[in-house]
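hey
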């Protein structure tokens, strides 16, 4: 399963910018990868692990701004379509359970 975090946080004041940096640093240290600006995803082994990720994001969320979470299966994630540009990633995006590199 993949958990997506979409966020739109204010950066008008220095405390807002500090909260933004703290949240973004939390996401990166927690194993999230950036797909687009303000869109991050993390791989979870099952629904229970995805709920744990959701709880972690909820507990580290800043007071201001909008944060949205979406959990999809690996099969749904692998079916993602890219309309413009090319997809380039160092990460394996396969729905296979075992991948030999």
């Amino acid at each position: 399963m993949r958990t997506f975090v979409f966020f739109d946080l204010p950066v008008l004041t220095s405390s807002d910018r500090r909260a933004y940096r703290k949240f973004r640093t939390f996401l990166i240290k927690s194993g999230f990868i950036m797909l687009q600006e303000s869109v991050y995803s993390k791989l979870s082994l099952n629904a229970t692990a995805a709920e744990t990720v959701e709880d972690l994001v909820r507990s580290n969320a800043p007071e201001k701004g909008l944060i949205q979470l979406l959990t999809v299966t690996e099969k749904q994630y692998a079916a993602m379509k890219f309309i413009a540009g090319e997809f380039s990633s160092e990460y394996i995006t396969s729905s296979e359970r075992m991948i030999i590199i």
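The chain has one domain: 2-78. The two ends are 21 Å apart (CA to CA).
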